[in-house]
Amino acid sequence: MNIFSFKGRINRKQYWCVYLISAVVTSIILILVGLATGFDDDVVTGAFFVLLIPLLWINLAAYVKRCHDFGGGWWYVFLFAIPIIGYFAWLIIGLVKGDDVDNEYGEAL
After folding, report:
1. CB count in 10 Å sphere of residue 23
2. Helix (H/G/I), strand (E/B), else coil: 11
């Protein structure tokens, strides 16, 4: 599984693992940066924004591939932009079972 690619499918377990691992890794990096700099707000905030771009890319790729697993398109990403609905869409997409058959996005998982 290429975590940076928007192509293909991932199952529910892979979807939640991406989110969990990215949250843990980001937290560890920010804590280490904070410890190294005496928790200087400017440095920790800067480190957060440096991590934000790849973190968003990885999580959006996981979201799109998860949508592909049940036959949904990339445009489901727009649900994220709607307050409150975006949270529920993220949760539901993580809980819905994928297609048991091959679809246009890849083989069944």
Report:
1. 12
2. coil
- Tens-place pLDDT, residues 20-43: 999 999 999 999 999 999 999 999
65 neighbors 6 (Cβ within 8 angstroms): yes
CA–CA gap between residue 39 and residue 21 (Å, rounded): 23
Query: Cα torsion at 51, 52, 53, 57 (round to 10°)?
Result: 110
What is the average per-residue pLDDT within 66-80?
87
> How many other β-carbons are positioned within 10 Å of the β-carbon of residue 16?
15
Rounded to whole angstroms, how far apart are CA atoms 71 and 30?
36
Helices (H), 1-109: 12-37, 41-69, 85-95
Q: How far apart are CA 74 and CA 67, in angstroms?
A: 7
Spatial distance between the Cα atoms of 39 and 22, rounded to a whole number of angstroms: 21
Over residues 80-101, the pLDDT tens digits come to 889 999 899 889 999 999 999 9
Q: 103, 68 in Cβ contact below 8 A? A: yes
